[in-house]
């Protein structure tokens, strides 16, 4: 995975984790701007060792603050409406048995 992809993934996961802990989106917005400022502050780091250390530190923070009951969209797997009101399966009639 390239550095750009790793940073993008880390940023998205950070935002989703902050949203799991926020009660309202207007409260989350301030946290999102703070997270963005942290990523912007380290945007010019070019040394691979320093980048790995930053990635590891961020991964540790994500694991430490992982929500015990994360938010799932209602229609997503694990959501409250997942597979509710599915259409009835189309079944072929049983074959006729002759004796």
Automatic annotation (TrEMBL):
* Any one of the GO BP annotations: mitochondrial electron transport, NADH to ubiquinone
- Entry's localization field: Mitochondrion inner membrane
Q: How does it sit in the membrane?
A: Peripheral membrane protein
Q: Where is the Complex 1 LYR protein domain?
A: 5-63
Q: What's any one GO cellular component for it?
A: mitochondrial inner membrane
Residue span of the signal peptide, if any? none
Question: In the UniProt record, does the keyword Endoplasmic reticulum occur?
Answer: no
Q: List the residue ranges of the region (Disordered).
A: 67-99
Compositional bias (Pro residues) at which positions? 90-99
What domain of life is recorded for the organism? Eukaryota
Q: Per UniProt, which keywords does this protein have? A: Acetylation, Electron transport, Membrane, Mitochondrion, Mitochondrion inner membrane, Phosphoprotein, Respiratory chain, Transport
Query: What binding partners and quaternary form does the record give?
Result: Mammalian complex I is composed of 45 different subunits.
This chain's function reads:
Accessory subunit of the mitochondrial membrane respiratory chain NADH dehydrogenase (Complex I), that is believed to be not involved in catalysis. Complex I functions in the transfer of electrons from NADH to the respiratory chain. The immediate electron acceptor for the enzyme is believed to be ubiquinone.
* Similarity remark: Belongs to the complex I LYR family.
Q: What is this protein called?
A: NADH dehydrogenase [ubiquinone] 1 beta subcomplex subunit 9
What organism is recorded for this protein?
Hyaloscypha hepaticicola
């Amino acid at each position: 995975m390239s550095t750009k992809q790793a940073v993008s993934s880390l940023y998205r996961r950070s935002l989703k984790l902050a949203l799991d802990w926020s009660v309202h989106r207007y409260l989350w917005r301030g946290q999102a701007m703070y997270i963005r400022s942290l990523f912007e502050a380290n945007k010019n780091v070019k040394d691979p060792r320093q980048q790995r250390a930053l990635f590891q530190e961020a991964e540790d923070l994500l694991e430490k603050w992982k929500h015990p009951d994360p938010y799932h969209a209602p229609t997503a797997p694990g959501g409250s409406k997942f597979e509710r009101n599915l259409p009835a399966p189309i079944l072929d009639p049983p074959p006729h048995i002759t004796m």
